Each structure stands twice: as structure tokens, then as C-alpha cells.
């Protein structure tokens, strides 16, 4: 099954009230409602920038562990700098509603078994890409300054490469947030403004395939993201599976080469739409396609580290934003839920979306995944 491809160029190059833009925005909203995900085409994005970024991150994560440890900030809940492997737990392994989601999937469509609560064997770097708010934030810990690695050969390349690729993805995803708002019948700036001062993160993950390269190894267990929208550049290794909300099917993600990105809905978008758009479940595993790529890269680039980098950007709402379902969208969510139920698709227990600050929602999610002490 292929995900819908949404063209950001149409939105950027035509008036907002033109029929082409209106139609493309409706397709974007519908893709998020049906699949929780879409493929985004944006001519401004450069494949070369992604490649330069992947090279830098492969080099960074190939460093010895003592070097990487210098960039850890456990006192800030790892929300900046590096997180080493086997720290973060897949939320689903400890979360009941999530196990219920797995139960209701057809056995052939289920993720690899995450029981046993083992943390993920993946490392990650958080690089904040924020606009400082003109007000005092209640959530200082979630808005800490960036860590720059010290090692010669990496230090000089770091900031320009991270900022270049990070800005490409940030621009693409914040424009898509405008498209989604328009497509849902809201003013274009609704989500973009709510996320203007969000603690957005360029958040590449790294998996050492020389250590964790066996078939069916879970690199990141079945979970949803806690932010608003997540955007990914193309990884050099396949292995990302996503679940389409209204189809129950597991989809092996293939992002076409060129100016294409993958976007997935997160928990903040689910909350704000009262469940009309659901956060998309996903996992990263070593499958046959991953193994085939490992062999190909070993032969073509014998001197390069065998590290799977996922080029991920988490777009957040502002920490001080009041998160509560938009009434018209919550009504539509209830209507859709009833319609699905009548079609024989039981979505399980109805989820409550109590009003709260975005910063509180983030802190409560971090406790679940063992990054923040409760
Ligand atoms: Fe994720």
C-alpha cells in the first residue's frame, strides 16, 4: 500500500483560496485522518543536504562511547544532546491502551513483540531549533541550550550541517501544518502559530548495525510520538514500519528519492483534534530489506561505519500553549468514530483529552518512556 503524496509546491506557488490549493489541503487533512501519515513533496528540499547530514551523523555515532558520553544531559531528561542506546523504553511495553491496539490488529499485521520491557538499542541526538518566546516560559527544562560535540573533525561541521538540514525539514513541516489546518476548515495559521515557540527538535537516531544487524531485531519498538508532527528524510536503510489508523495495515515505508519527506501525526495533533487525527504507530526493525541494504553498503562503502541513521525532526506546539480539543473537530471525530463502528471497525475505548498545557503533556509522556524520573 502506498501513502498519499502531498505536494507542498502547489500550496507555496498558488493563492490560498485557489481551487488547487483548497483541494490539495483537503487531501493532506484526509491523509492524516485515514493514515496518520503522508509523503510530502517539497522542491526546496535538497537530497544532497540529507546526504551530508547522514555522513556527519554516521561519523558522530561511530565515535567511542566515552566521547559520546560527554554530550549526555540526564539532568535535563535527555531532552538535549545525546541519548545512548538502551536508555529509552518503547512506551507500548508499559502502556495498556497501546497493548490493546496491538491486540486488535490482525495477527499478520502486528509489530514485533515488545513484551519484556527492554529499552531500545538506539542512540539519539537532540538538537533544538527554536525561536525564543518573547515571554517567560513555565517550562525552562524543556527549553535548554544546545550541546555541540567537541571532537575535531566533527565540531566544525556540526552546527552548519544540523541547521541546514534541520531548517529544510522545519520549513516543510510547518508549511504542512498550514495545509492541514486549511484542509480541516480552520484558518491556515492555527497550528503554525500554536507551534511558533515550540521546542522543535532535530532528532536523528542511530543504530549500530554491526551489533544489532540480525533479522527481526527491534531498533525502536512500536510507539507513537508525543509531539505534534514528525517529519523524516530518507534513511539509507529500510526498516521503518507504520500503521495506517483506519486500515489496520502495516506499511513498510518507502520514501522516493529526491525531494520527498515522510510526515507522521503525533499525540499533540491527536489531542488538539479530539482524536479526529490519531497519532500514528510505528516501529523500526531489521527486516529483509534492511539486510539486503547492509550487504550492498558493505560492498560499495567498505570504509564507512555501518550505522543506520534516521533523519527525524519533531515539530512541537509551544510549551505554554493550552492544549484542548477544538470543538468542531472533536464533533467530527465522534461522528467518524460512530461511522467506523457501524462499518465493524471498533477503535476500542474512547480516549479522554483533558485540557492541559503542552509542557505538562510532554512531561507526562517522558515519564512513560523512562527518560524523566517520576
Ligand atoms: Fe517515533
From TrEMBL:
Transmembrane segments: none annotated. Residues 218-316 form the Isopenicillin N synthase-like Fe(2+) 2OG dioxygenase domain. Belongs to the iron/ascorbate-dependent oxidoreductase family. This is Clavaminate synthase-like protein. It comes from Coniochaeta hoffmannii.
Amino acid at each position: 500500500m502506498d501513502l498519499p503524496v502531498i505536494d507542498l509546491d502547489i500550496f507555496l506557488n498558488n493563492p490560498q483560496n485557489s481551487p488547487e490549493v483548497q483541494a490539495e489541503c483537503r487531501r493532506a487533512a484526509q491523509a492524516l485522518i485515514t493514515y496518520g501519515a503522508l509523503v510530502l513533496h517539497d522542491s526546496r528540499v535538497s537530497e544532497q543536504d540529507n546526504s551530508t547530514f547522514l555522513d556527519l551523523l554516521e561519523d558522530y555515532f561511530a565515535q567511542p562511547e566515552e566521547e559520546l558520553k560527554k554530550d549526555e544531559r540526564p539532568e535535563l531528561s535527555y531532552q538535549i544532546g545525546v541519548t545512548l542506546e538502551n536508555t529509552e523504553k518503547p512506551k507500548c511495553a508499559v502502556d495498556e491502551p497501546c497493548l490493546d491496539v496491538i491486540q486488535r490488529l490482525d495477527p499478520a499485521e502486528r509489530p514485533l513483540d515488545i513484551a519484556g520491557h527492554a529499552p531500545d538499542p538506539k542512540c539519539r541526538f537532540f538538537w533544538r531549533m527554536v525561536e525564543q518566546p518573547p515571554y517567560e516560559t513555565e517550562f525552562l527544562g524543556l527549553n535548554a541550550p544546545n550541546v555541540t560535540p567537541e571532537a575535531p573533525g566533527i565540531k566544525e561541521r556540526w552546527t552548519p550541517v544540523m541547521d541546514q538540514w534541520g531548517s529544510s525539514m522545519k520549513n516543510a513541516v510547518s508549511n504542512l501544518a498550514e495545509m492541514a489546518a486549511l484542509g480541516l476548515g480552520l484558518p491556515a495559521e492555527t497550528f503554525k502559530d500554536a507551534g511558533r515557540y515550540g521546542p522543535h527538535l532535530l532528532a536523528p537516531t542511530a543504530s549500530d548495525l554491526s551489533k544489532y544487524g540480525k533479522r527481526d531485531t527491534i531498533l525502536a519498538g512500536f510507539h507513537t510520538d508525543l509531539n505534534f508532527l514528525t517529519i523524516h528524510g530518507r534513511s539509507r536503510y529500510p526498516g521503518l514500519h507504520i500503521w495506517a489508523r483506519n486500515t489496520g495495515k502495516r506499511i513498510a515505508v518507502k520514501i522516493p528519492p529526491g525531494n520527498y519527506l515522510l510526515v507522521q501525526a503525533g499525540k499533540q495533533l491527536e489531542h488538539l483534534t479530539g482524536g479526529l487525527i490519531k497519532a500514528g504507530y510505528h516501529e523500526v526493525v531489521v527486516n529483509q530489506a534492511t539486510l539486503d541494504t547492509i550487504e550492498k553498503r558493505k560492498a560499495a562503502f567498505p570504509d564507512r561505519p555501518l550505522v543506520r541513521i534516521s533523519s527525524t525532526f519533531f515539530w512541537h506546539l509551544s510549551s505554554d500553549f493550552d492544549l484542548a480539543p477544538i470543538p468542531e473537530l472533536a464533533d467530527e471525530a465522534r461522528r467518524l468514530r460512530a461511522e467506523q463502528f457501524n462499518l465493524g471497525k471498533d477503535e476500542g475505548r474512547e480516549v479522554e483529552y483533558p485540557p492541559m498545557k503542552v509542557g505538562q503533556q510532554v512531561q507526562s509522556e517522558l515519564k512513560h518512556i523512562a527518560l524523566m524520573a517520576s
